[in-house]
Amino acid sequence: MSNRIVGIDLGTTNSLVAYVDGKVPKIIPDQEGNRMVPSIVSFEGNQLRVGEKAKKRRKEDIENTLYSIKRLMGKGLAEVQSELAYIPFKLSGDSGGVIKIHVGDRTFTPPEISAMVLRQLKEQAESYFKEEINRAVITVPAYFNDSQRQATKDAGRIAGLEVVRIINEPTAASLAYGLDMRKQGIIAVYDLGGGTFDISILKLKEGIFEVLSTNGNNHLGGDDFDHAMISVILQEVREKGGMDGEKDPELFEKIRAASELAKCRLSTENSTFMEIELGAGKKYERPWTRAEFENVISSLVTSTAEPCRQALSDAGLTPEAIDEVVLVGGSTRVPMVRKLVEDLFRKKAHSELNPDEVVALGAAIQGHILGGHIKDMLLLDVTPLSLGIETMGGVVSRIIERNTTIPTSAVDQFTTSVDNQTGVQVHVVQGERELVKDVRSLARFTLKGIPPMKAGLPKIEVRFQIDANGILSVSAKEVRTGIEQTIEVKATYGLEEEEVKRMIKDSMVHAAEDLKSRQVIESRNEAESVLRHTDRAMDLHRASLSSAEMEKISKAVSRLKGVIQGEDHRLIRNELKALEEATQPLAEKIMNQALKAEVEGKKISDVV
């Protein structure tokens, strides 16, 4: 088994996997050279497609194609009501239960779908290293709560990965910049991705990366920029074309794709022209300017300013005290976002590293640290939200304050409010509000067996402990008797242990089937690549081939094209080998011509 620990950025829009080569973090590409895997899965009958192949199917089969699943992780159905207008697939969920995603007659949970993306990244790394990869550091938005972190960890386990550490995305980005640029001082990391926004203030000194504060919004990102533009276009299509895109999934997908493309173009150009086929001979056409786009997203961009100010306040700093500002996430390419950041922190922001890749690079560095390969660096992360328990009258008593460095533990003492009380319910909550009704419930358990005593006499010691992944465990102990109860807090909207075990077992049961599918896909990819190169070479060197050679190559190409869509990877491999043999004379002619061009007009002494 490999001791290698890879770094994974499980993103809303795209995901990446990275490793450290010596001291340099690098992205692991797929066999086609793609560095990012779209966080999309698509079901075509019994066949699963992930990444680029799933993305291509989104337009033609939107109802069986799932995307932006990260926005559903660790949440209940009531929490994603605002998403439903932009989600073409069907969701359900019991009160207090994990969301269910329905695809035909099958049902999945968000961690299961995310696991499919993680498994693709795992296989990508295994193909690259030619060895099994079982361990990973996975990043999450800094403002992910306990439920969302647990859901991410569950996804990793289902994918066959030991998640050795979950770290915050801005912290990972700071690691990448710290290693590459050796910066010292105070850094603000502004991270605006596809579905989440985080701001973290970090102190870098002598190899120690300490998070001073963090803030943000785990429901704000580039998807919301798209949604704002989609809303405008839906209204215009309804008014001018008399068509309802909200009730037509195919039309909605056309509008969504056009909005995303326009957003990207308007990040580098001042205007673009949008054209959408509506059907029934109708078409939506009109130019969009950057000014119009910025007017549509203005309130969303502006809403990121207050968390930045709060993070500065929590760290006890002014904008002038920030030495460097780092941009992370694809949405920071929007010029309006960059201007807001630079106005807010009063300095030019860094974007030397690819904002889409920097988080994965940092995760790889953290994996390298945990693997014992880097001795002179230390990462001190923080918990993003306060944790406490419910006390009399539905009031929150905080035990661990937000922005506390983790791992950490804290203890507080409580007592009973009723005479002869023999049990105490401990209600664990998370959030910054004062009343329980306004914060998130994480867990409940009861400390039983307390001897009957007058109210106020029992001493109940409650201990909170957060590990390096930000996962919480809570214990309650009656000090006089020593009676104790401990619980690892399971997310309110997390998967039960038995569910996770079942999903892991299912992945093992289907391992052979999955391997076969992977072999077919890899064989097809290689065949398509060879066919492209063969066509190009024949066009360039057709004149130098005999008719017999041409016929032999053409027949081999036809046979390969005839089997490429089949499910037998051995057959594809056999025809690939046959084509390679048929093109051997062509390869020799290309090589001879290249050598001739290299030595022509030169002396022997020049080339020997």
Short description:
The protein is α+β, with helices and mostly antiparallel strands. It is built from 16 helices and 28 strands. Strands 1, 2, 3, 4, 11 and 12 form a 6-stranded mixed sheet that branches. Strands 18-13-14-15-19-22 form a 6-stranded mixed sheet, with helices on both faces. Strands 21-20-24-25 form a 4-stranded antiparallel sheet, with no helix packed on it.
How many beta-strand segments? 28
Count helical runs.
Answer: 16
Low-confidence parts lasting 5 or more residues at pLDDT below 50?
none
Helix content: 25-40%
Structural class: alpha+beta
Strand count, sense and closure of the main sheet? 6 strands, mixed
Inertia-based shape: globular
How would you portray this structure in words?
There is one protein chain. With 608 residues, this protein is α+β, with helices and mostly antiparallel strands. Strand 11, helix 3 and strand 12 form a beta-alpha-beta unit. The longest helix is centred in the last third of the chain and has 31 residues, at 511-541. The mean pLDDT is 84.
Label this structure with key terms.
608 residues; 6-stranded mixed β-sheet; globular
Layout of helices and strands:
Elements (H helix, E strand, L loop, with lengths): L4 E5 L4 E8 L2 E4 L9 E2 L1 E5 L2 E4 L1 H6 L7 E3 L22 E3 L7 E4 L2 E3 L1 H20 L5 E6 L5 H13 L3 E7 H13 L3 E8 L4 E9 L2 E10 L4 H20 L7 H17 L5 E9 L2 E8 H13 L2 H11 L8 E5 L6 H11 L12 H13 L7 E5 L4 E5 L3 E6 L4 E2 L1 E7 L8 E8 L9 E9 L11 E7 L5 E7 L5 E5 L8 H13 L1 H31 L5 H17 L5 H14 L1 H16 L4 H4 L1
Parallel strand pairs: 1-11, 11-12, 13-18, 15-19
Antiparallel strand pairs: 1-2, 2-3, 2-4, 5-6, 5-7, 8-9, 9-10, 13-14, 14-15, 16-17, 19-22, 20-21, 20-24, 23-26, 24-25, 26-27, 27-28
Helix pairs in contact: 2-3, 4-10, 5-6, 5-7, 11-12, 12-13, 12-14, 13-14
